[in-house]
Design goal:
Elements: E1 2-10, E2 13-21, E3 26-31, H1 44-54, E4 59-62, H2 81-94, E5 100-106, H3 108-115, E6 123-127, H4 141-152, H5 155-162, H6 168-179, H7 187-197, E7 203-208, H8 212-219, E8 228-231, H9 241-255
Parallel strand pairs: 3-4, 3-5, 5-6, 6-7, 7-8
Antiparallel strand pairs: 1-2, 2-4
């Protein structure tokens, strides 16, 4: 495995990319979420790329326009289809032995891949897709119920409740939220569902069960979707050791 840093063009802007090369004919293109650089939170994507490359699959990461080492204006994930397409072209150019590319994204990177109808990938691994229209939106009832269930399993929280250290009014408001019916899917949720429906290749949807983003996604998604895989007791970025291993295995399966 070797790691190379390179630049490529996207509509006149120079974008920064990193290729972890490997001999396999199936590669992984990682799309960064939010305004994170291609290294990912706490270098998580760089570490994942190294492991996948060591397993024999080339991996390409990049900074979209206006992020990290890339030039241009940051237009956000909704308008990143051209950036993803340019990264895919660069990946194929610098790893000419590729026959198949799997696109992976977490959070709004997953949503970007879905909005772009798969963005030219052969397969998709979509993690915790972002469907929340506003940062001020109330958490879905499923998320509230999951939080209370977690608290009730914690002996320290039970002691706080029994000794009067929990605000009764706050508890009542929380229970009222938990009892609400699930809201209608947001327009973003509908848009990403429409985008994914245009994709004809295989796709898996990876959900971290403790993550509010994943809970909000599932609240507005079709029940019983066989593409969904859930990681118990995992947070948004899969920082827990068992969650990192789970994510690695899921992506390897998609590459197989």
């Amino acid at each position: 495995m070797s790691r190379r840093h390179l630049a490529f063009d996207c509509e006149g802007a120079q974008l920064a990319g990193t290729l972890d090369d490997a001999p396999g004919a199936t590669g992984l293109l990682i799309v960064s979420g939010g305004n994170e650089t291609r290294a990912g939170a706490f270098s998580g994507q760089a570490q994942l790329a190294a492991r996948i490359a060591q397993a024999g699959h080339p991996v390409f990461r990049f900074d979209r326009r206006g992020v990290g080492d890339s030039q241009g204006w940051n237009a956000g994930f909704r308008d990143s289809a051209a950036d993803i397409a340019a990264a895919l072209r660069a990946f194929r150019e610098h790893a000419p032995h590729l026959q198949r590319v799997v696109g992976f994204g977490n959070c709004d990177a997953a949503s970007a891949l879905m909005l772009a109808g798969g963005a030219g990938m052969d397969a998709l691994a979509l993690s915790n897709p972002w469907t929340i229209e506003s940062d001020n939106a109330a958490p879905p009832p499923q998320a509230v119920r999951a939080r209370y269930a977690e608290k009730l399993r914690n002996p320290k929280e039970l002691i706080r409740l029994l000794t009067g250290k929990v605000s009764f009014s706050k508890l009542v408001r929380g229970l009222a939220q938990a009892a609400r019916t699930a809201p209608e899917p947001t327009s973003l949720a509908q848009d990403i569902a429409g985008g994914l429906s245009r994709f004809s290749g295989p796709a898996i949807i990876l959900l971290a069960e403790r993550d509010r983003t994943a809970q909000a996604f599932e609240a507005g998604w079709a029940r019983g979707d066989p593409r969904i895989r859930r990681c118990p007791d995992a947070s948004h970025a899969y920082t827990e050791p068992h969650a990192r291993e789970w994510l690695f295995e899921q992506i390897l399966a998609a590459l197989a």
